[in-house]
Amino acid sequence: MAVAFYGVNSDSGLKKLDEYLLTRSYISGYQASKDDITVHAALSKAPSSEYVNASRWYNHIEALLRISGVSGEGCGVTIEGFAPAEAVATTPAVDAKAAAAEDDDDDDDDVDLFGEETEEEKKAAEERAAAVKAAGKKKESGKSSVLLDVKPWDDETDMKKLEEAVRGVQMEGLLWGASKLVPVGYGIKKLQIMLTIVDDLVSVDNLIEDYLTAEPINEYVQSCDIVAFNKI
Known about the structure:
The chain is α+β, with helices and mostly antiparallel strands. The protein has helices spanning 11-20, 34-42, 52-67, 91-103, 107-110, 114-134, 159-167, 204-212, and strands spanning 3-5, 77-79, 143-152, 174-185, 188-198, 221-231.
């Protein structure tokens, strides 16, 4: 289902965007898509830190554009006064061609427009993508070192399988480190594990909520707590 935003560069529009991203990592779906590029391009500048969720999302999309690009199709997004990602910067070329066709009576020269428009659209899309990447911050993404407590359901939980399930979570910007089992009481042990993250790519809160305490890993994991969080 297509999402619609209005006045994303106004305080009210940014507030709506921030509220929308409170429970979401992306504009639509579970991966970055053309919908994110469209909203990102519609913003005249990065949201201030006042808009925590919008600022986090904006920095994440910028990092993806710099490092790996965005390939997801998305579900479609509408922004008042702004065209979708595929159409941005191509509409003027189409309008100019149509105007030229009306002003020029030489139909033979203007009949076959489709081939030319396709090339122009492709070129415009490439130029826009390059401009978006060039607009990104040049500084390297920061990194953080995190220590997690991963707690099992009970003393019968297979801690070896629990650790294998945790380390099985792989994503760009996440690196698992050393670990150890720490006694809690009543024969129960918890897993303490280090991880290093690229701040613009990985949210620890999302890692815990969407992966470590979600199916199928929650078969072994009851809860996760952040013990330490340090910038590198």
